[in-house]
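Retro notes (design track)

What went well: tokenization of the new backbones is finally stable.
What didn't: we kept losing track of which sequence belonged to which structure.
Fix going forward: every design gets posted as structure first, then sequence, in one message. First example under the new rule, 146 residues:
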């Protein structure tokens, strides 16, 4: 069994930003030489997630609006008080809402690989979802198989 891992860097542009990373993941897969196995995509961030869904622009607007409706930015989050304290070494962002949205999304996706191709459905894409942008981010792609 072979394991290939790569870190991919990106920059989000919006507070909530659905970034289609399907091609990036596919490039790592094809560079790995692995024909059968799986691809793990992982976000090492607590204010960004990953999801597989349709890349239709109006759906992305709907998903963004839904995340904001479920967890509004203007709610009171105790975490924000911690982030703003002088003894904390964070970047000082009031981002309790971003952490809560992350819990809904999760931090990884696993896609099966057969004959060198990800087995995504016809309309499926892999999204890195920024929940606290804009900022520089990264994610990990790990291909496992033979």
């Amino acid at each position: 069994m072979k394991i290939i891992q790569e870190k991919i860097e990106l920059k989000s542009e919006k507070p909530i930003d659905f970034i289609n990373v399907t091609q990036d993941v596919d490039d790592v897969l094809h560079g790995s030489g692995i024909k059968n196995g799986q691809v793990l995509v992982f976000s090492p961030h607590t204010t960004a997630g990953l999801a597989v869904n349709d890349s239709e622009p109006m759906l992305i607007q709907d998903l963004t609006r839904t995340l904001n409706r479920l967890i509004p930015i203007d709610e009171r989050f105790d975490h924000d008080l911690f982030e703003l304290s002088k003894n904390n070494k964070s970047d000082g962002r009031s981002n309790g809402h971003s952490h809560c949205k992350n819990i809904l999304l999760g931090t990884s996706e696993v896609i099966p690989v057969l004959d060198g191709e990800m087995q995504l459905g016809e309309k499926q894409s892999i999204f890195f979802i920024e929940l606290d942008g804009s900022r520089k981010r990264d994610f990990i792609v790990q291909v496992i198989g033979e």
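Added context from the reviewer: The domain at 2-145 is CATH 2.60.120.460 (Jelly Rolls).
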